[in-house]
Amino acid sequence: MTIPELPLLSLSGDETQLLTALRSDLLSQRFKLELLDAYFNGEQLVRDLGISIPPQLKGLHTVIGWPRIGVESLEQRLDLEAFRWADGTDSADLEEIAEANDLYDEASLAHLDALAYGREYVAVGSGENDDPPLITFESPLDMTMFWDARLRLATAALRESVEDGVRIATLYLPDQTVYAAEADGGWEVFDRDIHNLGMVPVLRMANRQRTADRIGKSEITPEVMSITDAACRRLMGIEVGAEFFQAPQRYILGVSESAFQDAEGNPKSAWETYIGRVLALERDEDGQVPTVGQFAAHDPSGQTKIIDLYARIMASQLSVAPHVLGYTSDNPASADAIRYADNGQIKKAERRIRRFSTTHRDAMRLALWFRDGEPPDKSRRIECVWRNPATPTVAAQTDAAVKLVQAQILAPDSDVVLELVGLSEDQRRRVDAERRQSRGKQLLERLTQEAAEPASEVVDGDDGL
User: Fold this and answer.
1) Cα 191 from Cα 128, distance rounded (Å)
2) Fewest CB atoms within 10 A around its CB: which of 8, 150, 284, 351?
3) Residue 194 contacts by C-beta under 8 Å, 6 or more apart in sequence?
4) pLDDT of 305-330, one tens digit each?
5) Phi and psi dihedrals of 294, rounded to 5?
6) Structural element, H or E, at residue 427
7) Cα–Cα distance between 56 and 62 in angstroms, integer?
8) Residue 77: beta bridge partners?
9) Rounded CA gap, 54 and 30, in Å?
10) CA distance 27 to 140
11) What angle do CA 301, 304, 306 make, to 5 degrees?
12) What is the DSSP string of 116-175?
């Protein structure tokens, strides 16, 4: 990163103290966040109980991706499609900001981090030159904030990054945003964005909040971690069994040493002896035939049953159907049973939509504030348009919409009908444009017909005379 050629300034004493406190908070949370990240990526270190794993296999690493499956299956139900004004006025200004920031694709990344880490941050700032305001989603690994629980507002926030070997700290304050680079053990300011908003332009997208914990909690709970570790150990047990006990052990009683030698009298290797399918053995001195047998091979079915049990327990923790985690049974679940199993996750998704919508709306209002220089009118409410997390079939959605129209609850040409049918925001706009075009053609045809009617009447009158 090339730092602009501006006069280097120093942070004030209060700013330095605040930056230090925020950095301490950021670093104190990093270990826990990296642990959650490890479970999400399947990179966690499973604690060995030191009983069944031989020393030769201490480096064996098994992975079960249940935490990632649970988090991603919930995030895939959170599809933000559009922003619009609730009063029905033109929403082109909201769409311009959203498109300039690639907000819909970026929002899916923010939702995934919020579910995995328990929180995500949204920073708003001025755009370059005449560009729309900038909205960015920041990982909690790089950003933290101080929070006023009574006002439900941030009092200060910090983002830290390393760009081209230079450590950059961005300090967000109620009146300005300070950009500083680490130099000679201290911080040198290279830019200040004086916005005078009276509030910190950073928002927190928190997951599973409580009144006593506004920071948020991850979907990867301690229960999920514990069950994942237990299942990994069972899977590792299957690997050890396959390595040492899968092939049956054989035994031979009453055989001479020559049975283990080749034609030249040299001892056969253990592998040659083991893989021999047919053993040609001679009688001993007393004329007795050697006894040949084998021990039962290792049966992994007991271990797989335990893993299936863990899958069912994990399904209840993540609110997903057991088959999503790989659990199968002799009697497959019916369609109704699968839909019932999804109810918990659908309700989860609806709650996340409500919570995350608040953050998205506030971010859009901050962006309008940066653009216009004044806060938007509070009486004008912004709506976030989401795809239905229940993902019903097209037939079911269409049937519900038709019944509402037949009951005269909705008008046939209402945009709400198109939304209930399940059309995306872009598809609804195309339908609306086609409707306007069709109405325009009909109006033009009617006007043309009305203009031709008087001339026809005059001609008929002349013929009568």
Assistant:
1) 14
2) 150
3) 175, 176
4) 888 899 889 988 998 888 888 877 66
5) -150, 150
6) helix 425-464
7) 15
8) none
9) 34
10) 10
11) 115
12) HHSEEEEEEEPPSTTSPPEEEEE-TTTEEEEEETTTTEEEEEEEEEEETTEEEEEEE-SS
Give the Cα separation of 428 and 441 in Å (integer).
20
Coil vs helix vs strand at 361: helix
Structure confidence at residue 146 (pLDDT): 93
N- to C-terminal Cα separation, the chain: 93
Distance CA 70, CA 361 (A): 27
Nearest 5°: phi and psi at 135? -120, 120
How much is the pLDDT for 6? 43
Are 213 and 164 spatial neighbours (Cβ–Cβ below 8 Å)? Answer: no
C-alpha dihedral sign at 157, 163, 167, 168: negative
Of residues 397, 427, 349, 416, the one with CA closest to residue 114: 349
Which DSSP letter does residue 269 get?
Answer: P
As to burial, measured by CB atoms within 10 angstroms (0-12 exposed, 13-18 middle, 19+ buried), residue 424 is middle
Which has the closest alpha carbon to 51: 270, 237, 258, 218?
A: 237
- HSE at residue 392, side-chain half, CA atoms within 13 A, is 14
Of 65, 45, 48, nearest in space to 224 by CA? 65
More confident residue, 351 or 438: 351
Tokens of 406: 């037949």
pLDDT of residue 7: 45
Letter string b/e over residues 73-98, b meaning 16 or more CB atoms within 10 A of that residue's CB: bbbebbbbbbbbeeeeeebebbbebb
Sequence length of the chain is 465
CA 3 centroid distance within chain: 34
Indicate if the pLDDT at residue 122 is higher than 70.
yes
The CA-based angle 186-191-197, given to 5 degrees, is: 115
Question: Rounded to whole angstroms, how far apart are CA atoms 157 and 139?
Answer: 13
Which pLDDT value is given to residue 75? 94
Alpha carbon separation from 258 to 40, 255, 284 (Å, rounded): 57, 8, 11
As a whole number of angstroms, the distance between CA 364 and CA 104 comes to 13
**Helix (H) and strand (E) counts in the chain:** 11, 13
With tokens 């306007």, the residue in question is: 436
Torsion angle in degrees (nearest 10) through CA of 404, 407, 413, 414 = -50
Above 60 in pLDDT, residue 242?
A: yes
